[in-house]
Amino acid sequence: MREYFKNIYEAIVTILIGMGVTFRHLFVPSVTLQYPHEKLKLPERSRMKLFVNIDDCIGCRQCERACPVDCITIDTIKAGKDEDLGAASNGQKKRFHVTKFDIDMSLCCFCNLCTFPCPTECIYMTPEFDFATYDRNNLIFHFSNYTPEQVRELKEREAQQKAALANAKTGKKPEQK
Amino acid sequence: MAQTNNFPETRFELEIPDPLKTDEFILNMGPQHPSTHGVLRVLLKTDGEIVESATPYIGYLHRTFEKHAERMTWPQVVPYVDRMDYLASMNNSLGYALAVEKMMGLEVNERAQYLRIIVSELNRIASHLVFLGTYGLDVGAFTPFLYGFRERERIIDLFEEISGGRLLYNYIWIGGVAFDAPDGWLEKVNEFCDYFEPKIKEYNDLLTFNKIFIERTANVGVIPADLAINYGLSGPTLRGSGVNFDLRKNDPYCIYDRFDFNVCIGKGEQGTVGDSWDRYYVRIEEMVESAKIVRQAVNQIPDGDAKETVPRNVRVPAGEIYFRTETPRGELGYYIVSDGGKNPVRVKVRAPAFCNLSILPAVARGTMVADLVAILGSLDIVLGEIDR
After folding, report:
1. Burial letters A71-81, b for 16+ CB under 10 A, else e
2. DSSP B17
3. Cβ–Cβ of A7/B211 closer than 8 Å?
4. CB contact burial A107-117 (16+ within 10 A = b; e otherwise)
5. Counting C-beta atoms within 10 Å of the first and last residue's C-beta, which end of chain B has fewer, N or C?
6. Which of A72, A51, A73 is nearest to A121 (CA)?
7. Which of A173, A151, A159, A142 is nearest to A52 (CA)?
8. Do A17 and B205 touch (CB under 8 A)?
9. Are B205 and A43 a contacting pair at CB < 8 A?
10. Are B108 and B175 in contact (CB under 8 A)?
């Protein structure tokens, strides 16, 4: 009988203790953020959306190789001998036309591995996080500045150069035979 | 295994007239059941409310981590390792990094080692806070969940500041850490410890010593010490059974031998040694110990360049290694084989939650379905790690 009442007493007291903890929180200022209207300021290291400063990209493809999920696709075309593409902001010479620099953010695993090998620090993650869209294709971000016409021109030129090179080679070979 | 029954044998000898005996009923608990902590299916054979056998079926979250690791370069495995036990990513990548460093014979910078300890102990607290919240949910207490996540949020904010990630950090690298601590971060960690330690009393008031909670968990799912060892349990689940075994003390890795902390074991304060309440309380006490380690590490941390010893190209000599570390869930072992190339040949993981789950059929027999939920919760499983 004593045990019975002791149990009831304990149950009530421990619940009241717990309630006391909850009750004290009525007098604590609210911490809720009304999200779309007010936003937290994220620290600068936050890894959200990838960004590429394409003016600094030298087309070395190191980020593409570092990515564990292959979400970066880069196409480059070698610059001609007499062509000067300028240099990146840290003095690295640009030797390639970066005709395609696509990042598929729907594949990205936000591991930050691509940003470290970059010699010009032109690829980095930004604290911008609200880029949800209705269409998955909108998550593929194109960073290259080249228009399709320019790309076609460059590709044709490259093909011509290759053909010329191949001709030169094959032109020599029959003579040797 | 017959002694695993938590109830006296007389329980089955209830005097029920034969015509009223219920048929055996097969019940699928999960995969989409909130108390299975992910996608675990437990096949129950029940006799009325009493479980006759419980068989866990796993594999719903299988992501072929081990196969993936074979085509990744050594540093690229780290983000994958993070995703195994997503509640304690830091501890997972710490184990992998230590294993690969031991193969390479790499001595890691002092400051990086201290930063590793700080982040992994903070992550242990965060993981145990999730356990506290979800275990409360399992047995029907909703409020502690909010309290646990409140403190966890502060830890995650600290992690976001130092690594950039909130859940999956890719922070501990082979040979060091990804970033040094930003200015004022270590003071913030100290502030967090000051803030956190009094909160333990709040959890105790809310949940731990609540009579209803004790009734739900004490004497439920008793795992005797010998059974726990036989099933290869580890971590708080093993220590809850009264076995004093902590890899941080018994097989110190990294720089854990420099810190002063206690190993918490279950003492059977509210019931039998090794019941669900003990396993729960071991984790609460462990949070205090972790905060203690964090404090010591913050006080001892030397100056230096944390990224000094990160190699540009990871070259691992041919060989194999088994390396084990203590994660919030128990002994996490990495068995890594290298042929000296760019990729690991094999990365086999001994997942603590996987081994801890294996005891479920042994303790489930003879319990009520509602108690089974309490037992499953007290094992603190993470399906991402079990299925990998």
Report:
1. bbebbbbebee
2. -
3. yes
4. ebbbbbbbbbe
5. N
6. A51
7. A142
8. yes
9. no
10. yes
Residue B1: pLDDT band by 50, 70, 90 thresholds?
very low
Tokens linked to B4: 């695993």
Chain CA centroid to CA A119, Å: 16
- Residue B120, both tokens: 């992994």
Q: Which DSSP string corresponds to B178-189?
A: SSPPPTTHHHHH
Spell out which chain B residues touch chain A, with contact meaning CB-CB distance below 8 angstroms. Answer: 72, 75-76, 78-80, 82, 143, 160-165, 168, 170, 178-179, 182, 202, 205-207, 209-212
What pLDDT shows up at residue B6? 65
Listed in sequence order, the residues at least 6 apart from A75 whose beta carbon sits closer than 8 Å to its beta carbon are: A98, A99, A100
Q: What is the mean pLDDT of residues B371-377?
A: 87
Query: The complex's ipTM?
Result: 0.79
B57-60 long-range contacts, CB within 8 A, separation 24+: B58/B354, B58/B357, B58/B383, B58/B386, B58/B387, B59/B387, B60/B31, B60/B383, B60/B387
For residue B175, the distance in angstroms to the closest alpha carbon of chain A comes to 15
The string of pLDDT tens digits covering residues B107-129 is 888 888 898 899 999 999 999 99
Q: Do the chains contact at B179 and A20, CB–CB below 8 Å?
A: no
Q: Is B92 within 8 Å of B327 (Cβ atoms)?
A: yes
pTM: 0.85
List chain A residues with CB under 8 Å of B212: 11, 14-15
Per-residue exposure over A10-38, b if at least 16 CB sit within 10 Å of its own CB, e if not:
beeebeeebeebeeeeeeeeeeeeeeeee
Tokens of B211: 């009579």
